[in-house]
UniProtKB/TrEMBL annotation:
It comes from the Bacteria. PANTHER family: MAJOR FACILITATOR SUPERFAMILY (MFS) PROFILE DOMAIN-CONTAINING PROTEIN, PTHR23542. The chain crosses the membrane at residues 31-56, 62-83, 95-115, 168-185, 191-210, 231-254, 266-287, 299-319, 325-343, 355-378, 384-403. GO terms for cellular component: plasma membrane. It comes from Streptomyces tardus. Its main location: membrane. This is MFS transporter. It is found in: Cell membrane.
Length: 416
């Protein structure tokens, strides 16, 4: 039996503003799996930037660095759903431990290959083999979804807490990765991230009390990818991933071009901080109406705000870019929280981990394409013009969300 969940996490009169979050974490075993899950996710915010800095510093090519990073993310997009399906069928601990051991060995091999000046093909092979890392964020959300399966308000708060944790990782991750690579040696960020990933995953899977039982999972219900509404949602995730991937590489290159290579991590962290703060605030709101409408509004807001990095980088350079990325970040967390809530509503409960991993996989595919495209743009477009790539990707996400939102509405109308 799972631990008994506390009272619903909605806001109550006379309570502290953050009381909904504190009630969530008072669930027996929740604080332990949440904290270890955050530790396991921190490296996922480091690997991309760490690989770009490591390869670009050693080989002198942002195009190669972006392509290596894109290779790892691209293979993860294929492997991650398979790992998630195995988690649903066999259990989190039984699958995640061997998967993370293999991924850590591959990341360390990548660092060693760069250090030894191995051929380029060796870098691509190591990046591909590192794709087995389990989706700890999805496994953590699956635990919340089961604990609060009958409480939509609490699930919304839990998803907001998880998204804020993701953004916290993306605040700290790039800063730590760049700082280690610049102050120690180019491979330091990758090595540190690999060790942290192993420790965090082992601690997370050791929390067996809240792990969803294997008997509750299995190949039951409609395949997540065939669920009405999932196709447009996944397409929006794909385009949004291009925004994230290209923004990361373009910002690293723009900071280097501006003469402050070490500032890239801090600037990306500003964006993540804005997203994390917005996510926490969003989790305290009492929502009404269609989640699809909220999702479309959030994506459109993100697309509108993505005009700011191009304008600020063109006019004010690196230091005006940071505050505009703070504003851009404030539209990201509400978008991701709403989208994960949609996935939990659309996908059969027995395949929830697979469904959420498919969403993350679509995001990874976009990040992969965005990282490769960002490297190309950074080397071929002058100055701030490389920021046109994330802008176009955000506009595409908004169009897909606007058009795709009609599909679930038609499905509901047909069922009525």
């Amino acid at each position: 039996m799972p631990p008994t969940a506390p009272a619903p996490a909605g806001r109550r009169p006379g309570t502290h503003r953050l009381a909904p979050y504190s009630r969530l974490l008072r669930t027996p075993g929740a604080a332990a799996f949440f904290a270890s899950g955050v530790l396991a996710r921190l490296p996922m915010a480091m690997f991309g930037v760490a690989a770009v800095v490591m390869v670009a510093t050693s080989r002198g090519s942002y195009a190669l660095a972006g392509a290596v990073s894109a290779t790892g993310l691209g293979f993860a997009a294929v492997v991650a759903p398979l790992v998630a399906r195995a988690v649903d069928r066999l259990g989190q601990a039984r699958v995640a431990v061997p998967a993370v051991l293999f991924a850590v060995a591959a990341h360390l091999s990548l660092a060693a290959a760069v250090r030894a000046d191995a051929p380029d093909w060796a870098l691509f092979c190591c990046a591909a083999l590192a794709s087995t890392a389990p989706n700890t964020g999805g496994m953590s959300r699956a635990r919340w979804a089961r604990l609060y399966r009958d409480d939509p308000a609490a699930r919304h708060t839990a998803n907001s807490l998880e998204q804020a944790a993701d953004e916290l990782c993306f605040v700290l991750g790039p800063v730590v990765a760049v700082a280690l690579a610049v102050s120690w040696f180019p491979e330091a960020g990758t090595v540190f991230a690999a060790v942290t990933l192993l420790a965090g995953t082992l601690l997370f899977t050791a929390q067996r009390r809240t792990e969803p039982p294997v008997g509750a999972a299995g190949p039951k219900g409609r395949a997540p990818v065939r669920t009405p509404g999932m196709a447009p949602l996944l397409a929006t995730f794909l385009a949004t991933g291009v925004v994230f991937g290209s923004m990361e590489v373009v910002t690293v290159a723009f900071a280097d071009e501006s003469g402050y290579p070490g500032a890239a991590g801090a600037i990306l962290a500003v964006q993540a901080f804005g997203s994390g703060a917005a996510g926490l605030a969003f989790g305290l709101l009492t929502l009404s109406g269609s989640p699809w409408r909220r999702f479309v509004r959030c994506v459109c807001a993100m697309a509108a705000l993505m005009t700011l990095p191009l304008l600020s980088a063109s006019v004010g350079g690196l230091w005006l870019l940071a505050p505009t990325l703070l504003l851009v970040g404030m539209a990201i967390a509400p978008t991701m929280v709403t989208s994960m809530t949609l996935v939990q509503e659309l996908v059969p409960a027995a395949r929830i981990n697979e469904g959420m991993t498919l969403a993350v996989t679509a995001l990874l595919c976009g990040i992969s394409a965005g990282a490769a495209g960002g490297g190309w743009a950074a080397e071929r477009l002058p100055g701030a013009w490389s920021y046109t790539l994330p802008l176009c990707a955000a506009a595409t996400a908004a169009v897909v969300a606007l058009l795709g939102g009609r599909a679930p509405a038609r499905e509901r109308a047909g069922q009525a």
